[in-house]
């Protein structure tokens, strides 16, 4: 087969996958956009398994933080991922999440450390903006994102 034919097939397959993902995301009521980050090209959007947000991955209710949250510091459950342990704590002031930290962020190898170092700041920014656990997972950091959002939801549940 010619190079031109092979490339045409690759591009056609990619287009079908992208369109399918956008249709699925629209059906779930999630935006089908991604934003580019750092030099490795990790993107906020769907995880590698196609799950667009934490809410659809079963990480909890993801209810928005509002004035129903108690002020204080709340630490979520420690979550074991295949690549390390993740634990999230939140600071709530005036009923809003004012800070998010990761007291435990373990990585078993250098690659996982690099992924975490890029994904965690993005997740923190998204959480502070959304004021909930309903944020986009980080593509290329699916396990870290799931662990982070599961622990975050645990902390939010304690603050409710």
From TrEMBL:
Provide the transmembrane region boundaries.
none
Tell me the SMART domains matching this sequence: FMN_bind (SM00900)
Using the UniProt annotation, give all residue ranges assigned to the region (Disordered): 34-78
Specify one Pfam family.
Answer: FMN_bind
Biased composition regions of type Low complexity, renumbered to the chain: 34-68
FMN-binding domain location: 82-159
Q: Output this protein's name.
A: FMN-binding domain-containing protein
Q: Name the species this protein comes from.
A: Pseudolysinimonas kribbensis
**Highest lineage ranks of the organism?**
Bacteria, Bacillati, Actinomycetota, Actinomycetes, Micrococcales
